[in-house]
Amino acid sequence: MSAGIISSFLVWAALLAFLFQLKRRPVRVRILAAVIIIASGFIPLSGLPIPLYIRAGIGDLSIVTQLLLSIYLINSLAGIYSTPARKTAYQHLCIFILVTGAWFYPTTLGLTYFDPYRFGYITDPMHWLALGYFFLGALTLLLLRSSWTSSILCIATVSFCFGSLESTNYWDYMIDPIVTIGSIIFLSCSLISQLKRKPTKPHPRQSF
Question: How far, in Å, CA of 173 to CA of 168, rounded?
Fold first, then answer.
């Protein structure tokens, strides 16, 4: 089974885990839900498992996205909540992804004469630019004490070396629209949560 097919099953499982809020359920419920989620991924619909329809709609996900989905599933099934330090690390990764997507997608879609996507092919003489960019990203995350998210970029790079996806372009291993949109949602929710926790200053009493 290719990593591309696995990605569609991860999306399906993560979607069900989110809808049923598995992280908040008792252990027995999480175990039962895990069995149901796995079984539902193989139920044929018009001759094909449901997750494969997801793949037809969104294509293969990057290795970075697949790793994040896997972490989310493990935490949901195990009932593990992220620590403040872990949430900060995810925020750093999301910011890096958004910064990357902000300049990568406009240039790739032909809005400029510069096309960084071609640098993702190992046969291109400038492929080291793409490799160097994500190396600096991983190094920056490491310096920000986000070693957990830095390792995600490193694992995705190793997966590229082994050709885990059908694509032979490095960018397809590192970023995709799903993780970009997910980063926007995660950062927005984090910002809203911080604003809600921010204590309001009491109004000084007026003297008459």
Answer: 9
